[in-house]
Amino acid sequence: MKHLNVGLLGIGTVGGGTYKVLTRNAAEITRRAGVAINVVQVADRNVDHAKTLTGSDVVVTSDAFAVVSNPKVDVVVELIGGYTLSKELVLKAIENGKHVVTANKALLALHGNEIFAAAQKAGVIVAFEAAVAGGIPIIKALREGLGANKIEWVAGIINGTTNFILTEMREKGLAYQDVIAEAQRLGYAEADPTVDVEGIDAAHKLTIMSAIAFGMPMKFEQAYTEGITKLQQTDIQYAEELGYRVKLLGITKRTDKGVELRVHPTLISEKRLIANVNGPMNAVVVKGDAVGPTLYYGAGAGAEPTASAVVADLMDVARLSSATFEQRVPYLAFQPNSVVDLPVLPIGEINSAYYLRLRASDKPGVLAGVTKILADKNISIDAMLQKEPDDNETEADIVILTHITQEKNMDAGIAEIEALPAIVGKLIKIRMEELGK
Description:
Elements: E1 3-9, H1 13-24, H2 26-33, E2 36-43, H3 47-54, E3 59-61, H4 64-68, E4 75-78, H5 85-95, E5 99-102, H6 105-122, E6 126-127, H7 138-145, E7 151-157, H8 160-172, H9 176-186, H10 194-197, H11 200-214, E8 224-225, H12 233-241, E9 244-254, E10 259-269, E11 281-288, E12 292-299, H13 303-320, E13 351-361, H14 366-376, E14 381-386, E15 395-402, E16 405-406, H15 407-418, E17 423-433
Parallel strand pairs: 1-2, 1-4, 2-3, 4-5, 5-6, 8-10, 10-17
Antiparallel strand pairs: 7-9, 7-11, 9-10, 11-12, 13-15, 13-16, 13-17, 14-15
């Protein structure tokens, strides 16, 4: 093969970045890949805009199915997003014997099992480095670089929008509603930010990493997902006073009972490197039994950072397209007949330490009642912060950090604490992670 011919579906932000990187770095890419990688056809709804980016050397069409059926196209790069039309196009490309590169985390999290099975049957490659953490090569690290390890856990800041929001809340003391407006103005958040701020985007990415880390099918529908919309500035401030930062983390752990698969706000010690990842940046920590904790940091989105991963996948396709299925790295790191349907634990079965904030009447005996309930549930206290009430106030905040316990025990204790006459309103609970062992 002297050339790898690419059909590009979508030439928006990431597609445009991919075309630019392929063109600008053509000589370097050819030196590395051993073949020239050329975009020969582009499909985009805005044909005129696509033509301004590609010039006269590339065929441009509004019909994406024309690309996946083009006999001159060796590999289809899917960058249109969503998981209905994109699924149909990817499966059609595979049926036509074409390799596929995609940055579509939602597509893989929801339909990856079907797509990989079809690709295995057809003997084609499906590459998806850009689907998780943008320009950070975390998929390659999990599939190849850490292949000698039994992966114990993966935890990451894998959504730049929420990390930007939490950074602004901490550094500027702003409320969530004020920061989301700024994030939208800067282009970090969509007009409808639900997928990001409710943790759905992070859960898509975590589902993919969990499947690769543990050799299991995609199980997005079983992921526990909790966003940042209910976080209060008060808790970010108290966490800071206690030496912690609040981050939206995707966490997956292998346990004797099954796999934890969860996205939620998390307290992390400010001494941890990942706690100091700020703004829209991403970072992932992977713990392997041989290598220990390893950290991967970089831009999680953007035209050229994501294009970097897309082009790296194209280079892998160029190198491996002539190899047999057995000679290629498996889609999910493990051989298809070795993928195990591991159970995903309900959130009540996970083990974690906890940050608790309760508001209580400022009178004797209240704290004793709270600590007795926790002790009865075998929940031990690691640290406590009792705030003095403001002038003319009769209520005060109490913040408690616990040692590790099972979530269902914690929830049972919280229910009893909230029922105490001296407790005002609902108790705030945020999970805590060490991420260093």
